[in-house]
Amino acid sequence: HGRAREDFSADSMRRGADGVDGDGVAPLVALLQRRPADVVAVAGMSLQTRRLYEDVRLLVDDHCARNSGDVMVTYAQDDAARLWWDCDAARAELPAMRREERYCVAVARMLQDAPAAYAALGPDVLKLRLHPAQRLVDAAALLPAVQRAFTNVVAKTGVDVNLAAAHPHLAHVLPFVAGLGPRKAHAILSRVSPSDPLESRNDLVTRKLCTRVVFVNCASFLRIRPATADALDATRIHPQDYILAYKMALDALDIEEDDEDSGRRRPGSKHGPARYVAEVMRNAPEKLDDLDLVGYAEELKRKHLLKLETLKFIKHELQHPDEDPREAFEQPDDRRVLEMLTGEIIGETLREDGSSLVSATIMRVQPRFAIARLDSGLEGFISVANVTDYRIEAVSDELSPGQSIVAVVKRIDLEKMSLDLSMRQADIDEAVRRSQSTVPDASQVDKYFDLDSESVLRERAKALKQKSTARMRTIPHPLFKPLNSREAEQYLASRPRGDCVIRPSSRGVDHIAITWKVAEGLFQHIDVQERDKPSDTALGSTFLVGDAA
Asked: Does residue 503 contact residue 513 with C-beta atoms inside 8 Å?
């Protein structure tokens, strides 16, 4: 699990039309013959990977047709592999491998066990693009949320303790088991090995790997495989509910519980009802459908035990012991493939609404069009009509190979993995204007987003900005002080009655305020509007004394 068995390097996986195949064709076909596979993954860091994918797919399809096999060929997610392949942990675990080989191992591990691959990154998992808005959240707040997500996934799937002890790269998920954590997980792994595995969940307590309280918290998330003592140890059923599973198995098989079985009804026993649970799971899971779980739950309710949902869960686990509750794997669509191979994000770095500016280099020029290439490897098509705002006869009149340009994305062709670009100045100006706009387009805003509340907040921010600007204003007058209303009152508190202060106004740059001391502890704030101002910072030539500010 997760170990590299064989490797080879090649320059081409393409079958030759003239009978001369690429140097990787024979090794790949021989490998499929020796080691039957379920999945062949293709990954890479450029759009050239598409050619490799097609070559490999044709080879695998031909192999399956000749051998009546069924092997899926898929693009593989490699975001975690790009972070892991050259880190210290990767070099320490696989010191004899080259960087490219470690990359392949990481890609394969991602397909086999994605939670373990992501957990191996530790805090570096935040370097991945997990959400479009994650850059707006502080890392110290985001990491605990991501760790809770790991805990939820592990709670759904469970962790095979013996497998984690045998394969260190799988051990990274154990700390996310509810009730454990890094310290307790390390304590368990340090005392479990392939030569000394756990035989039952009870071993966690009898071998003093954890306390009884910790055992109660984490037991249902720790799977023991092979479950030699009790088949329930490989399920997500909690040991406290084993007795209910035993009873359901006995009733499903229509077996009366005898005194011997009653005395041996305990978790981890190889005898008694545990053997009937294994029989039901293996040979007669459909018999559980005949049980009256509601009636049994009512009987338990009279004993002050609310167990109907638990009984339903036990039935499901017994009928589907190896089910993975996560969503089924789906091959990435064209949009996802483009994002994986180029690093571009549709809707963020690339948009079709005319607001996405990109830089590119002209690669080829023809009379009626030019081809430009972005730094990400994407190629863009520029028609003669989209080169300038005015009419030109040939693209070569304006463009030449090697020229650096700025263009606007007009269309994204996912099938061809290419773009339609425009260099027209009108399109570029519009893209700049839209990118600088602070008001979002209503069609691109989440339906629950409150645009009215945002407008109010923007007005408040504008007022605060004006107030800040007013505070910085300077007027050449001996009574002028850069104070607000409260500061002006504090300043005049020790001054004689009748003194006043001219100060900036919070109403904007076309207002000033006068605060004067009427009596001890009594102040009046007067608003003065300025007219005929040559500029925002200059003093007006006409003043209108209004109501109190």
From this structure: yes
Q: What is the predicted pLDDT for the residue at 465?
A: 65
CA terminus-to-terminus distance, the chain: 76
* Bond prior to 115 in cis (omega within 30° of 0): no
Output the CA–CA distances (angstroms, integers) from residue 85 to 76, 98, 109, in the order listed: 15, 9, 12
* Cβ-based neighbour number of residue 470 at 10 Å: 21
What residues in the chain have per-residue pLDDT under 50? 259-260, 262-269, 548-549
| Buried b or exposed e, range 329-342, using 16+ CB within 10 angstroms | eeeeeeeebbbbbb
Coil, strand, or helix at residue 234? helix
Residue 490 CA to residue 485 CA, distance in Å, equals 9
Q: Which residues of 103-142 are buried (b: 16+ CB within 10 A; e: fewer)?
A: bbbbbbbbbebebbbbbbbeeebeeeeeeeeeeeeeeeeb
pLDDT value of position 453:
86
- Other beta carbons within 10 angstroms of residue 241's beta carbon come to 18
Within 113-239, residue ranges assigned H as helices are: 114-119, 139-157, 161-166, 182-189, 203-206, 212-218
Q: Are strands 39-42 and 379-383 parallel, antiparallel or unpaired?
A: unpaired
For residue 142, give the nearest of 121, 155, 127 by alpha carbon. Answer: 127
Alpha-carbon distance values, 545 to 175, 211, 458, 502 (Å): 71, 79, 29, 13
Q: SS3 sequence, 207-226?
A: CCCCCHHHHHHHHHHEECCC
Pairing verdict, β 357-365 and 369-374 = antiparallel
Interatomic CA distance for residues 343 and 358, integer angstroms: 14
3-state secondary structure of 295: helix
Three-class SS of residue 257?
coil
3-state DSSP call for residue 253? coil
How far is the C-alpha of 429 from the C-alpha of 408, rounded, in Å?
Answer: 10
Judge contact between 120 and 87, C-beta under 8 A.
no
Strand-strand pairing, 222-223 and 159-160: parallel
Contact present, 10 and 29 (Cβ < 8 Å) = no
Q: What is the pTM assigned to this prediction?
A: 0.71
Q: Which of 443, 438, 469, 468 is nearest to 454 (CA)?
A: 438
Give the pLDDT confidence score for residue 380 in this predicted structure: 93
**Euclidean distance between CA atoms 126 and 134, whole angstroms:** 9
Question: Residue 365's pLDDT is what?
Answer: 93
Helices (H), 284-421: 293-301, 308-319, 334-342
pLDDT at 548: 43
